[in-house]
Amino acid sequence: MTDFLTQDFIQLAKSKYLLTYLDYLKQHHPDVLHLWQQSELPDEFTLQSSDLFVLPNLVDRLSALLEQHLNLDQQVAYIRYCARTNLQKAFESIELTSGYTLKEQLKDYLDRAIFESTTLNHRFLHQLGNTWLVRDKPFKDESWLRMSDAYMVEFWTLLIQKLTGTYWYPKKIWVQSDASRYIQKMWADRSFELYAHREITGIELPEALLGLKTQTMPVRGVSHQTKPELFNLKTTLQLSLKPYLINGRPSIDTAANILGFHPRQLQRKLHKENLKYTRVLDELIFDNVKKELVETEDEIADIAFRHGYRLQTHFTRAFKKHCKLTPSEFRNQQKG
């Protein structure tokens, strides 16, 4: 899995995990949520479907904002809630196999979890006879990495407790940042060794623990995506742009900014895959248009306007070129 994850692709995560953070802030810190939405999201941006994907750097920038506006107790409460809730969401969509040892189950879980978030570059590391569960994450900014490290350690601990039915917690922890104040606050009643400013974040797993048989848990809605679906440039570009269509037709400069690239970088990536940005965007837009034509009774002029067309005649011409039917013909055909 590690070799596969070193490929050059746009990093995405299912929006249901971002919704965890937003829901918590909406309930407890709406003022901070408003600040973040103003700076990071376009007007009328909504996340309502767990099938949508978003860019994980949105969460990274949110973490930096929380450090500025919340005290330590509030930040720890936020981390704990998000780790617990996102673990529950992960178990709803990732199928686990009964009868596995913890080591087998963790490996299986990590292989499947990559289709929930492409940032999950987690692996086992064997060092001096000890086994560690570690995460490789590029170090960029201490302000968001501290909360990310604390969240990851808490998430892993809850995951292992859930799989084994125990109250185990790690005795040795590595973090890339200086996340000690978070972890010491979360685990004030526990004894552990914490090593900050390491190259990777990880927890040590005793061999006796890895050999335990795991519990069987119900799964409600298993994801069956495949690597080609999730990791080709065309699909990931469309997934990342989809929530932004509310503001009309994003230019390639806007798309590059959303993805964290320079426009020339995005152009080179598209050229390498023999793709044209306008065609990729048209396909995304008209797939969305077709869905609205079938699932709503909205006027065609309104649908056209929402997707960046000021004149319905231009919209009709473009739709017919793409779909071989006018919008009215397509709607009538689909609705019988």
TrEMBL record:
Domain HTH araC/xylS-type: 251-333
One GO MF term: transcription cis-regulatory region binding
Record InterPro entries: Homeodomain-like_sf, HTH_AraC, Tscrpt_reg_AraC-type_HTH
Pfam families (UniProt xref): HTH_18
GO cellular component: cytosol
Keywords: DNA-binding, Transcription, Transcription regulation
Cited PANTHER family: HTH-TYPE TRANSCRIPTIONAL REGULATOR GADX, HTH-TYPE TRANSCRIPTIONAL REGULATOR VQSM
Protein name, as recorded: HTH araC/xylS-type domain-containing protein
Organism ancestry: Bacteria, Pseudomonadati, Pseudomonadota, Gammaproteobacteria, Vibrionales
